[in-house]
Amino acid sequence: MVPLCHFYKMNVIIMDWKPEAAKELEKIPDSVRKMAKMGIETSVEKKGRSTVTAEDVKEAVERVGALMEKDEKTTKIAVVRCDIVSETCPGVACFKAFNKRKVCFGEYGKNTEIIGFFTCGGCPGRRVFRLVDSLQKHGIDAIHLSSCMLMDTGYPRCPHIDEIKQMILKKGVKVVEGTHH
């Protein structure tokens, strides 16, 4: 049997950045600059050009400016959950409790958003360490340890919960135990 392979032609366009455009790009926060640059280049390419001007950057900033401004009033939280449990649980109860501000989410007002929902990556939870670093770049205020990591019935309690909790606390982020139980 001969394997069937598909080859796609890729057009690579090298963008020329005017010095003024590069200066405008530097004004964009580090945490989103790489993404912004790709978006600006895509926009310029769609216009049939290969040179990025300061006006292109300013236009992009105006278009998505609200996303780049830091909203001091928004509380940003994340939920870390058990990798094993995630095979059978899509997180509906966690989100339902958050959306209704019930159980462990009762302390939050309307101006709170979940900016991360992820698994520990499997025992012993090493992924959490890396993702907390990433979440801190986005202004995380608190991380919830999901109920599935804490319960003794239905699922076994996470054997690494104390280490995961201490690691998050050492990073200076508030830890809340539980989501919907």
Automatic annotation (TrEMBL):
<dbReference type="GO" id="GO:0015979">
    <property type="term" value="P:photosynthesis"/>
</dbReference>
<feature type="domain" description="CGGC">
    <location>
        <begin position="76"/>
        <end position="180"/>
    </location>
</feature>
<dbReference type="GO" id="GO:0015995">
    <property type="term" value="P:chlorophyll biosynthetic process"/>
</dbReference>
<dbReference type="Pfam" id="PF08821">
    <property type="entry name" value="CGGC"/>
</dbReference>
<dbReference type="InterPro" id="IPR042298">
    <property type="entry name" value="P-CP_red_C"/>
</dbReference>
<dbReference type="Pfam" id="PF08369">
    <property type="entry name" value="PCP_red"/>
</dbReference>
<dbReference type="InterPro" id="IPR013580">
    <property type="entry name" value="LI-POR_suB-like_C"/>
</dbReference>
<dbReference type="GO" id="GO:0016491">
    <property type="term" value="F:oxidoreductase activity"/>
</dbReference>
<dbReference type="InterPro" id="IPR014925">
    <property type="entry name" value="CGGC_dom"/>
</dbReference>
<protein>
    <recommendedName>
        <fullName>CGGC domain-containing protein</fullName>
    </recommendedName>
</protein>
